[in-house]
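Title: [Solved] Outer membrane protein assembly factor BamD 3D structure

Original question kept below for reference.
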Amino acid sequence: MARSKISASLVAVLLAGMTLTGCSSGKDGDADRKNLDRFTAEEIYKRGEFELENSAKPKDAVFYFSEVERLYPYSEWAKRALIMEAYASHRAKEYEDARSAAQRFIDTYPGDEDAAYAQYLLALSYYDQIDEVGRDQGLTFQALQSLREVIERYPDSEYARSAILKFDLAFDHLAAKEMEIGRYYLKRGHYTAAINRFRVVVEEFQTTTQTPEALMRLVEAYLALGLYPEAQTAGAILGHNFQSSPFYRDAYQQLRGQGLSADATGDNWLTKVYRQMIQGEWL
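Solution (posted by the thread starter after getting help):
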């Protein structure tokens, strides 16, 4: 836009932003924060944008966006400020605040074009905490549920594809935690406990990247217990689906060392999985 075409209203907004900028630090800044009602919703919103773009503390922007919502509720600027409050809170890693703002947006403006983004932000607030939760997988399950909401409610939105990718990664994360616990038990000779964990991966997380190792570990655990039909069937499933995997080669060597082959045999939960697989209902 040429300088001569800058509107008077935009000049007013810019001047207001400069005024707010000049009063944003120190005791005077704190006092000015208490008197924001002398500014318009747009002016306060612009100040929030300025903080978000220029401050190292996104939480500073949250204050201004939340003030728009407080001082000018149900206005168009309040709606815009609410979604930005959720975004700024997420950037500040204030995940509970991000969820709260995003949920308020969804509840207040369910039909708005930004509702899909609000749902996506809500899901991200869980997803981005997955690596922080140790063995507690509650947040991972909540991330999966929220990501599914994005996928099912807004399948044509620009966020659906990213939600699908993150859903798969979160799902894989759950399987990886089962594997971690299973390996822990296996290493200490608690074979039954280990088998229970690997079975969960095979039955409930069969589309994840953890499945080949889970099958190989089942071969190892069942061989240790002398349950050869189960070990052979686990090897057969592994060979049928992941023959090029190094986990199959490892399982094959273990079976061969016991004079066994990777064939489905016996009548157990793994033979049922094998039959389902051959019929195209598994993997």
